[in-house]
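Consider the tokenized backbone below.
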């Protein structure tokens, strides 16, 4: 997994493209071409390499193809090579503080899009997402509670009995799609945020049998800037933990 990522990161132009997406995600090809002294074809080639390495994802919005930074592979490298046992929420708090200290340009298009390939069936992914005993192993030691019906409530509870997040099930299509509203109830700096939306898309890989692509889209957060930054840093950790659980049976820390 690491080799394509390291090769993709080795080129300074590709690192520049990632920096541009980090500064403002969800950009079209034209927007990414403007800051670079490079042909349109050259930028497209670099973007294809980044997408093949899993470092970016793309989504169609109207007639445009938008490019999004996918933080999951970088997070996996960090977990493997840098600090497996660092407190995960600390990263979110640091990024939240930095973001609140500068003006945030919010748009109506999806901004936080993360994707990961997991060697498991869609049904296994769905089960891991909806069973409290399993969610507690990859969602920061929190278990999810719901009766899993459209318009029903869901809650995320920590091991010490504190409710961390809540929302409503907006769309349910087992085992392929889950959409829910999202609001943190006990996290620093998010008290004034309105509910946003999180969508889990679970699709069998088109080429590799037994592999599932899991995509998480967080959007509708125009009035939830702080929540968006927490999830921008937290979702890649959750996805990495989900992959570790389903492929090895253990959490990221080996517990």
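A designed sequence for it:
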């Amino acid at each position: 997994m690491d080799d394509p990522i390291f090769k993709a990161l080795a080129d300074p132009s590709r690192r520049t493209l990632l920096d541009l997406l980090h500064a403002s995600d969800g950009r079209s090809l034209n927007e990414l071409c403007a800051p670079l002294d490079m042909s349109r074809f050259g930028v497209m080639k670099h973007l294809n390499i980044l997408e093949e390495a899993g470092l970016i994802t793309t989504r169609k919005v109207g007639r445009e193809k938008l490019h999004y930074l996918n933080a999951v592979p970088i997070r996996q490298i960090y977990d493997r090579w840098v600090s497996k046992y660092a407190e995960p929420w600390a990263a979110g708090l640091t990024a939240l503080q930095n973001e609140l200290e500068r003006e945030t340009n919010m748009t109506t298009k999806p901004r936080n899009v993360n994707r990961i390939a997991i060697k498991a069936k869609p049904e296994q992914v769905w089960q891991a997402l909806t069973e409290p005993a399993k969610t507690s192993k990859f969602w920061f030691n929190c278990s999810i509670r719901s009766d899993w019906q459209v318009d029903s409530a869901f809650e995320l509870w920590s091991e010490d009995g504190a409710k961390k997040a809540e929302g409503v099930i907006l769309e349910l299509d087992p085992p392929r799609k889950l959409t829910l509203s999202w609001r943190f109830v006990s996290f620093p700096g998010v008290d004034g945020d309105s509910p946003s939306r999180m969508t889990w898309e679970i699709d069998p890989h088109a080429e590799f049998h037994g592999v599932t692509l899991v995509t998480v889209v967080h959007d509708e957060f125009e009035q939830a800037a702080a929540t968006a930054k927490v999830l921008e840093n937290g979702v890649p950790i959750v996805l990495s933990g989900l992959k570790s659980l389903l492929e090895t049976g253990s959490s990221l820390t080996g517990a």
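Residues 2-69 form a domain with the Arc Repressor Mutant, subunit A fold (CATH 1.10.10.10).
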